[in-house]
Amino acid sequence: MKHKYAYGLLENAWAFVESAVNYARQDRQEQWKFAVLHLTTALELLLKARLALEDPKQLAARSTPITERQFEQGDFRTVGIEDCIERLARMCRFCLNQRERAVIETLRGLRNRVVHYINPSNSNELKAAVGAGLNLFIEINNAEFRDEEPFGAKTTSQVVVELHKCDDFVKERLASLSNQLRSSPRPRTHHTDECSHCLQDATVIDGDDVRCLFCGHGEAIQEFAEGISVDRSVETCPECGRQSVAKHQWKDCEPTYECFCCGHFRGPELKCCAWNGTALAEIPRLHPVGR
Ligand SMILES: [Zn+2]
Ligand SMILES: [Zn+2]
Question: N or C: which end of the chain has fewer CB within 10 A?
Answer without folding.
Answer: N
